[in-house]
Design a protein that fits this description.
Blueprint: E1 4-6, E2 11-14, E3 22-23, E4 29-37, E5 44-60, E6 66-72, E7 80-86, E8 89-95, E9 109-115, E10 121-135, E11 141-147, E12 153-156, E13 165-170, E14 176-180, E15 185-191, E16 196-200, E17 203-206, E18 209-211, E19 221-227, E20 232-237
Parallel strand pairs: 1-4, 5-8, 5-9, 5-10, 10-11, 10-12, 11-13, 12-14, 13-19, 14-20, 15-19, 16-20
Antiparallel strand pairs: 2-7, 3-4, 4-6, 6-9, 7-8, 15-18, 17-18
Pfam family, one: Toast_rack_N
Protein name: DUF2154 domain-containing protein
InterPro entries: DUF2154_N (IPR031346), LiaF-like_C (IPR024425)
Length: about 240
């Protein structure tokens, strides 16, 4: 399978078919394509992930800036990738085609994306109808924004973070589970929808504000702004 390699220029690519075909009956053939964003002179990354419908897995650890694979069964779901180096910031965008079919039924649209640990990352995740798993422990995050529509979501922010950063979390319909660090300060300001929110091993300060035990003494703080929709959201310490 030939990977997609993105150089330091503004490049918008339809995914390259790799010849890895799997029969899925009604949904037809599944194409698997690899994505590689090679390292360049970037000092930080701005990563945008826009998935209309399907499954998204984000993990840490690659010797590239970004590395991953996408499986899709509809040409309408063939994602687009762009990369630009702008004043020291590598700008990565992976998004569904404008013609994406949100009513995917038994179609396949599965993304696996691995991010580098070597430079600070501003990560923006937008999903429509999807199951999302964000294993972000070990990354060098400078900012995190998550907006979800319908589906389940797991976010792992555990670990020993070296720098403070802000998190914006907006959920629609579905259950959300967030794992938080023990030894790094955490503050959550929650704007609750009609769903249920659970704050496990966190201290209530009133008015929807929660902190962990390390908050008062830690030099590193993760500040989380949440707006919860319908469903159950659970925040717990690792």
């Amino acid at each position: 399978m030939k990977p997609i390699r993105l150089l330091s220029a503004w490049v918008v690519l339809g995914m390259v078919l790799t010849g890895c075909n799997i029969s899925l009956g009604k949904s037809g053939e599944v194409e698997k394509s690899e994505i590689i964003v090679d390292q360049d002179e970037a000092k930080q990354l701005d990563v945008e992930l826009h998935l209309g419908a399907g499954k998204l897995l984000v993990d840490s650890g690659t010797d590239k800036w970004v590395e991953g694979s996408i499986m899709y069964s509809s040409t309408k779901n063939k994602p687009q990738i762009s990369y630009q180096l702008n004043n020291g910031t590598g700008q990565v965008e992976i998004k569904d085609s404008k013609n994406v079919d949100l009513n995917i039924g038994d179609k396949v649209n599965e993304w696996e994306v691995n991010l580098t640990k070597e430079v600070p990352i501003k990560l923006n995740v937008n999903t429509g109808a999807s199951d999302t798993s964000l294993n972000l422990s070990g990354l060098n995050l400078s900012d995190l924004s998550i907006h979800t529509g319908v589906g389940e979501m797991d976010v792992d922010l555990s670990g020993n973070w070296k720098e403070s950063f802000d998190v914006e979390l907006n959920t629609g319909v579905g259950d959300t589970h967030v794992v938080l660090p023990k030894d790094v300060g955490v503050i959550i300001e929650s704007s609750k929808g009609i769903g249920e929110s659970n704050f496990v091993d966190l201290i209530s300060k009133g008015d929807g504000v929660y902190v962990n035990e390390a908050y008062d003494t830690s030099d590193v703080i993760i500040s989380i702004q949440t707006e919860m929709g319908v469903g159950e959201a659970t925040f717990e310490i690792e």
